[in-house]
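Practice set, problem 2.
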Amino acid sequence: MRKALYVFTILLASHFGFSTTFQPYEHINLFQGTFSTGMGKAITAIKDLGTESFFANPANGGGKLSIDIISINPFQFNNVTIEILGKLNEIQQDVSQLFDYIGRPMNVRAGVNLIGINIPIHNFSLNLGTFSTIYTYLEVHNPLSSAGLLDILGFLSIGAYIGTSYSLKNLTIGVPELEKHLKHASIGINMKLATSSSINRKILLSDLLRSSEYLQNVINEQVNTLLTDIRKILFIPDIGISYELPIDELQKINFGLSILNIGGLPIGDSYIPTTVNLGIAYHYDLSTLIGNSQLLQNSYISLDIHDIFFQRKDKDFFKRLHIGIKSDLANLNDIVLITLGLGINQGYPTFGLGIKLAILKFSYSISAEELGVYAGQDPDLRQNLSISIGW
């Protein structure tokens, strides 16, 4: 039983691992929201997803006061995670069962935000909060290969953020023609302060065949390393611009540009690079069209291209392509809110559902992440959950 607890601990006490032997072609990010994942991560030009919109583009701060506490966003896992945890006791008795998972990676990710606040002040929107992200990756190899039997990699990140978006709608510069266009624009900046640590350990078949105390010591050592080997605090800014182009009373087009993780963020032996993202979103007020203000609000079709300068290790365009559809199916005075999201992320379909009941918020999504060099090579199907208490 103690051995099972140690294994489970390391699965939950690591972060989005990334090293020279980890998946170098996965497009990982410091913050990844559950609902935005369900709509293909195409949210650079969408303003009404709270913290998820703000982290995708700091110019997309919310226009309403909101407070989230004790937010888990996301808790992510794939099908292999469920299978291995369900057979953990059997695997401990018969190590050969691990061979069934050769080439089928396991991962667990959890983002925990103790508090997140959005405060609108005149033309400003102030955003601040804390975050931590933990992720682990386990991959089984052929035990006779030089890679060993198991790779256990992980990363822990803890930090805080503060940022603001500013609407230019009341900006006066003395040029009426320019002011007419600027009134539809917003700019934003976000400053993240983050510290991190990582682990990278190979477990050989001979390790598993030793005493259970030996394996417990190995895992305990890695957990202690993860918790104590904290790197220095880094200042990581994001900046963004958004522009809203009204077409008529029912339609508008939003444009967004964001530059995220300026200066790059070390992740294990690698890093998250600075990326420039572009987005466009078409909004149609379906609630007015059907004559019911409580149905089909905030409906969008969006398209994003992330990392337009190809700073990630791969050079595939379709891994950078994101398409999304989002609509508030029902909104009963912001007390009950049901939101649907659909999308395409790196060539794979996604689905997301968000539910708000008074102060309780819940989201669920299904998506796939491309682990290979190009879209369609090596998808990893994942499920995402989030829950928070807020106003």
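Problem 2, part (b): a different protein.
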Amino acid sequence: MYIINNMTTITDLIQEYKNSKFNWGKIDCVTFAATVAYRYKNKEIPNIQEKLTYHDTKSALQWLKAIGINSFDDLHEAPELFAGLKKKDISEVKHGDIVYYIDSEHKSGLLGICNGVRAYFLSTENGLTARNVEECKYCWSVE
């Protein structure tokens, strides 16, 4: 088990979102993954609230375009463009890494967080959900 500040585990950080309702720009897959990953590493994302200026699907797409992403299909570019993180192959994933999963049913990508063999995601339809890490395509580490 990975422990932060001698008290909080990565599982604890993820479970804080267990009953969260999806809310663009406040509690969505980008904010969930980034917040948990940075808290796990005891780091802060500089000016995160100023950077997250979207509040619905339309403004989220405009925000993505403003940071250099053309559509939700390219969401896997967000960690690099938004936070300067380097993309790695999923075979290099570690606890607390941000991961990218492609939901083939809804034809969309989700950013989430690795917690061992499982990765957790916050989606519009299902709230907090888990998938096997091996189903994910990319990962990023907060250093």
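Answer key, part (b): The chain has one domain: 3-140. Residues 29-40 form the longest helix (12 residues).
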